[in-house]
Write a structure and sequence with these properties.
Length: 183
């Protein structure tokens, strides 16, 4: 996902909520059922500020499920052009990501990214509502990743020379000397 795109879009254009248009480009409807399940009160995606709209002209986000079939090439391009700028495209499910089990059939072009640019991929067959909600949270930057800072330092030659030797004795001669014990 392009970080620069999100930093430009959200503060100015989409400060409160995302309006979503959902479409299927030729799949088995498994992911469609899961998207609709995510919109039910059980998962309540509206609490994150996401709302399903009936027209692509009102949408900020285009959710695409299913592999892109040849008859859906032109309608998908027209649908993408109908969504006003700035727009975000989310490919949901294995079929939308790469064509799914039909990636090499005569009637399937492939994943959504073969036709229009995709900003976020949500894999799964079908993609679970929890994964869809996690993707929305990532899109809205609600679930920020917490990564510990890593610091690297270069080891000096003196430290490397002292590895495996007793303090004060360095080199092969030190290894050959017998230990002195006090009696």
């Amino acid at each position: 996902m392009a970080e620069g795109l999100l930093q430009r879009i959200f503060p100015k254009s989409l400060p409160r909520s995302l309006w979503v248009f959902h479409t299927n480009t030729g799949g088995c409807n498994g992911c469609d059922i899961e998207v609709l399940d995510a919109l039910t009160p059980t998962f309540d995606v509206e609490r994150l500020g996401m709302r399903l709209v009936g027209s692509p002209r009102h949408a900020d986000v285009l959710l695409v499920c299913g592999p892109v079939t040849r008859p859906m090439l032109r309608p998908l391009k027209e649908l993408y052009d109908a969504v006003p700028d700035p727009k975000i495209v989310v490919a949901i499910g294995a079929c939308a990501v790469g064509g799914g089990p039909w990636f090499d059939t005569y009637n399937v072009v492939g994943g959504v990214d073969k036709v229009i640019p995709v900003d976020m991929y949500i894999p799964g067959c079908p993609a679970r509502p929890e994964a869809i909600l996690h993707g929305v949270a990532q899109l809205l930057e609600l679930a920020k990743k917490k990564v510990a800072a890593v610091t690297e330092s270069q080891v000096t030659a003196g430290e490397l020379a002292g590895v495996g030797h007793a303090a004060g004795e360095i080199g092969p001669a030190a290894e050959l000397r017998p230990e002195r014990r006090e009696t």
